[in-house]
Design goal:
Elements lengths: L1 H17 L13 H9 L15 E9 L5 E7 L3 H11 L15 E7 L3
Antiparallel strand pairs: 1-2, 1-3
C-alpha cells in the first residue's frame, strides 16, 4: 500500500512538472555591447598616442547616477595625459538604460586604434 501511494504521488508530481512553465524573475540588463557603443561616440583617439600611432587598451570604471550621467569615473592608465583626456570627455555624459541601478560599478575596456 505504501509503495502504491508513493508511486502515485511520484507520478502526480512528475505530471505537474511536465506542464509547468518557468517564470523569468531576473531583470535583464542592457547588453554590454550597447554600453561600449554609447561610450565610443563620446571619445576620440587620445592625443598622447598620436605621435607613435599605436593601438592601446585603457580600462575605466564608473557609476551612472539617477540622471543617467557618468560619475565617479576612474581611468587606469599609466599615462596621465590619457587619464585627463578621458575624464574630461566622459564625465557628465549620458548613458541610456543604465541609470536605474545607481550603485552598480561598471568596468569597461576601451580599445584605441590609430586613425
Amino acid at each position: 500500500m505504501k509503495k502504491s501511494l508513493f508511486l502515485l504521488t511520484l507520478v502526480g508530481f512528475l505530471a505537474t512538472q511536465a506542464y509547468a512553465t518557468p517564470t523569468n524573475t531576473r531583470k535583464t540588463k542592457a547588453p554590454k555591447v550597447n554600453l561600449e557603443q554609447q561610450l565610443a561616440k563620446y571619445i576620440s583617439y587620445p592625443e598622447a598616442l598620436r605621435p607613435t600611432q599605436r593601438a592601446g587598451i585603457v580600462v575605466i570604471q564608473f557609476r551612472v547616477n539617477s540622471d543617467n550621467e557618468i560619475c565617479q569615473l576612474e581611468v587606469f592608465s599609466q599615462n596621465e595625459q590619457i587619464n585627463n583626456t578621458l575624464i574630461r570627455q566622459l564625465t557628465g555624459k549620458k548613458l541610456n538604460g543604465y541609470g536605474s541601478d545607481a550603485g552598480e560599478l561598471h568596468t569597461v575596456r576601451l580599445r584605441f586604434q590609430p586613425e
